[in-house]
Write a structure and sequence with these properties.
This protein has about 425 residues and is α+β, with helices and mostly antiparallel strands. The protein has helices spanning about 1-10, 30-45, 65-70, 105-110, 120-135, 145-165, 170-180, 195-215, 225-230, 240-270, 275-280, 285-295, 330, 365-385, and strands at about 45-50, 55-60, 75-80, 145, 300-305, 310-315, 315-320, 325, 385-390, 395, 405, 410-415. Strand 10 and strand 11 (about 405) form a beta hairpin. Helix 7 crosses helix 10 (about 240-270), helix 8 (about 195-215) crosses helix 10 and helix 10 (about 240-270) runs parallel beside helix 14.
Length: about 425
Amino acid sequence: MSEIRTMSTFDPYSIPLDELDLIRNDIFHHDKHVKIFERLRKEDPIHWQKDHENAGSFWNITRYDDIMYVDTHHELFSSDGSIVVDDQDEEFPLPMFIAMDPPKHDQQRKEVSPVVAPRNLAKLEETIRLRVQNILDGLPIGEEINWVDLVSIELTTQMLASLFDFPFEDRRKLTRWSDVATADVEAGDIVESEDQRRAELIECLEYFQNLWHERANDPNPGFDLVSMLAHGESTKNMDPVEYLGNLVLLIVGGNDTTRNSITGGVNFLNMFPKEYDKLRANPSLITTMVPEIIRYQTPLAYMRRTALADTKLGDKQIKKGDKLLMWYVSGNRDADVIEQPDDFIIDRKRPRNHLSFGFGIHRCMGNRLAEMQLRILWEEIMLRFDNIEVVGEPVMVRSSFVKGYSELPVILHKKTT
């Protein structure tokens, strides 16, 4: 309890602005980031962090409108090279289309976007519902379980296996590779060195290369992501590291974001019990609750851009080559745009008015699939359980990029009426 008490009394106003470290790997533990970004939005919304020991110097963009401007002006702010604060590892580069500019970005994204087109989402809905039902029906009632492992990870990993047409018995490999790709090596809880990360990602590549070769030679390609990449005009001749980069993008995009929102929703309803009462009284509020979960969770805390020319943003002069971090997790709490942003409100009037999926050409292509998974999950939860009771502190992952959970202890209480 002493650590929790210490974190809950953390006061960022007592620290000089130039000493705030926004990429420390425990920034989201016990929500201490909330007050940090609140201060920056008030005092220095476009904040220069200088000479960080691991990431160099970079701008922190913390207000909703400024983030929106950067995100929708790709001709001024490039994604090329890296979407995180660190530059690409020259010895092990992982090019991926989210870290590319047009026209290459547009060409490669176009090859895989049909998997989340409305027609295919309609086909996936029944599959998702059956899997949700099987997962929920297999959970013990009245016993403490880790919701992250048994529900959040299992559901998203099954979905990923379907999208890749990946061997179902090996699906947990996808979870591992996602965790490895985004792990903070300094934290040491997932990988202990860059060498270990590279070795495990090479294992991922080798596995997927076998799938590629099988499907590239198929005259009747399936409707899965590997087949789409293997037969796409702009992707069929990718070299192995670019294939791996795009695999990592699709795995992380399909895993971390939905998985952590699934956990976040349970956590937030327990933090705001009156909202849980609202939901019990009117389950149709699931429709507006889902985007509110995604706003309040903000599964990926930021995205990076690089200035292509000298330009002005707000009252700050941005120089060509400067790195900028668009802190979605801060913009989603901006009271100038979002009413009562620090409250979780499941019947919010404009629930999709959030930044979690990004905007512009890099807007998350799987946003509707993520919302559909959450909607179906909560529809099935409300049919079965009167309460999902959080019975201990959530354990957060150690990362400044992925705002996620490794554990959420809960007890399920069966619906009686």
